[in-house]
Design goal:
Elements (H helix, E strand, L loop, with lengths): L11 H23 L7 H13 L11 H11 L19 H13 L10 H17 L4 E5 L2 H15 L5 E5 L5 H8 L6 E3 L8 H10 L4 E6 L11 H11 L2 E6 L23 E5 L11 E5 L13 H4 L1 H5 L18 H35 L4 E3 L7 E6 L4 H13 L6 E5 L2 E7 L7 H17 L3
Parallel strand pairs: 2-3, 2-4, 4-5, 5-6
Antiparallel strand pairs: 1-7, 6-7, 8-9, 9-11, 10-11
Bound molecules: pyridoxal-5'-phosphate.
GO molecular function, one term: transaminase activity
Cofactor: pyridoxal 5'-phosphate
Keywords: Aminotransferase, Decarboxylase, Lyase, Pyridoxal phosphate, Transferase
Amino acid sequence: MSTPHLASGPQGPTALRPLLDTVLDALHTGGRTRGAPLPHGGPGAVAARIRDAVGDVLPDRGDPDALRILVHAFAAGAADPAHPHCAAHLHCPPLAVAAAADLAATALNPSLDSWDQAPAASALEDLVTRALARETGHADALVTTGGTESNQLALLLAREAHGGALRLVHGANAHHSLPRAAWLLGLPEPVVVPAPAGTLDPGALGDVLARLPGPLLVAATAGTTDTGRIDPLPEIAARCAVHGARLHVDAAYGGPLLFSDRHRPLLTGLDAAHTVTLDLHKLGWQPVPAGLLTVRDPGDLTALRHRADYLNADDDTAAGLPDLLGRSLRTTRRADVLKLAVTLKSLGRAGLGGLVDRVCDLAQEFAGLVHDDPRLDLHARPVISTVLFRPAGAGEAAVAALRRRLLTTGRAVLGRARADGRLWLKVTLLNPATRREDLAGLLTLVHQAHAEGPR
Ligand SMILES: *Cc1c(COP(=O)(O)O)cnc(C)c1O
């Protein structure tokens, strides 16, 4: 048997080059086969096409054409976030430069659990995490797999800072990963504060904080997943200060508004938080995963200190080898920091801020089109880049079915959200290449799909 080609080493780039040509060609042909934001036919048809393309998953003898066949099928059956009509979720089209950088991290495969596996990667992570932490007014940051892990770590650090006891207080608008993290960490049932206008009500929060015994962690949201609303951070921070509660802000969605001079003021008060969740695989145009948790007091990170002789022996650490194990709950950890570093440096603050402004402007334009269309109801003017709308007078089942018709025919990918007791169609605009015509075209598709079903 011949020795397989490896991605790193002196021959790595030479081995990769023709394979990358195959991948890029298959991405192209697969995307052309799909010809739409989503594959046609719904889950059954997509699964059947994947079964046909794969054949035997683990054949006795390998197939030299596997890369081309599977990447083609993968692309043909993908939901493409770069299609302007793929706008359901906080699912961004990644920047080409970030995907290219990520290839280098994949090829060299550094692992950030010890310095001897990741010398440059650990030095780069140190620089980038501190720079991003400064954006939120904080001292340090941990790299995570996303908002869910960041929120979990925020609860863990808060629990440990308070000697193991803690109760979480969050708005009814908070992300589901927060109560789930409380459950995982064995904390008491969280207290849910009403959010009647879609944002946490500071008056109601003050009442809760006045009556509950501490220690308490308040979790506020800067950019809710369903509507993109931002909790009143200064008022919430003031209530926390009065009652001695710790504050976490889940800015998984809204955090990157910090890169925009125009939109940064929406996050005033963020720096009062003890910890902040940021996701750069949402408004940051990164390939998944690209999460961060910024931390005001680096002392909080001592809770994660952990010793494993083969990774961070005391004498190695004393001799100056960086101790990386305490920067995550994971052990083996890929160098997600490279794509972040490349993105920040290639686009700069102006480039990233410009992308943020662009998608926020698109959301305002889309809301304007909905507002001016008498056949549609607009939920509210967008705060970030999310717009909720529905066909006027449509029943709940009709709204849900319309969305599924668009999905199963592959025409458009819209989300759904419940707000003010009603079911809405949700558009999350994260594609800066979307044009005004695309937005109008999306509404045409909605009208068509609505006309196709029972009202
Ligand atoms: C997306 C999101 C999360 C979860 O982040 P993942 O990266 O999906 O784990 C948490 N909070 C908010 C507000 C989000 O929008």
